[in-house]
Amino acid sequence: MTAFLLTGLYEFEVNVLDKIKIRLQYMLPKQGLTRLAGWFADKNAGFVTQWAIKLFAKAYKVDMSEAQKSEFTAYATFNDFFIRPLKEEARPLVTGKHRLAQPADGAVSQLGSIQDDQIFQAKGHHYTVEALLAGNYQLADKFRGGEFITTYLSPSDYHRVHMPCDGLLTEMIYVPGDLFSVNPLTAANVPNLFARNERLICVFKTDVGLMVQILVGATIVGSIETVWGGCVNQQREGVIKRWTYPDQLTEGAVFLKKGEEMGLFKLGSTVINLFEPNAIRFNASLIPGYATRMGELLAETVANDTSVDTAAEQIETQ
Question: Is the per-residue pLDDT at 21 higher than 90?
């Protein structure tokens, strides 16, 4: 009886604590905290910076043996440390054109089929593809009945994001929004989390049709950057911005190969990938909570699918 009562009391306390954490997400000045964190993370504050880096690495058990520079003193700012590149051999890339690679280190939050236009966020929570894509219904229609995967990058993870497959960038959309935390607790309790947070939508023409790779901002994420455009949210002006790119290899085109870096987060967040219907089959080992490593098997193309020409073939004939 005593054990039963103690267990019930513990669960009650945990539930109350979780509710307080969620309530604080709504009450705290997230924009101000994010600007402050970004300002500090980009400053060379000498021993203060070194203290912050060491404290963070210890708290989150960061594995520095994988980094190109394993000594903390090699990083002048916290951001330099946070976006540290890894050794070339640290993340072997899955081979074969029919195999797609994990875009980031992290953990699978959710994955599966897009039911009509509904994406599963967590138990009791869905959001629409159209809302995620900032109301672009024409683009959203292409992913109805397709596949999605949401990958959460924790503070301890490597925070550069890579390409799952070869891709030609056709469009980029910056969407301002809230800056809720994107950890599992928040995902389970804040409706429409990923469709209400700040995000960068990147549309690629690939071997398996269109693929969207979305970098989702969060509390204290100082910036979202791409290799072709740099920081996209430095000013946070509160307006949607859209860029279009050539859909063939001409001047100004952005073509990235599988495994190449495409962007990064300065302080952690989430990556969402969308695929068209009948394009890919996810690695059967992937389930919510599965620890991902960039370069490992994400999915395979659907066998004998002749309806989609490869991006490379399209480019070669133009």
Answer: no
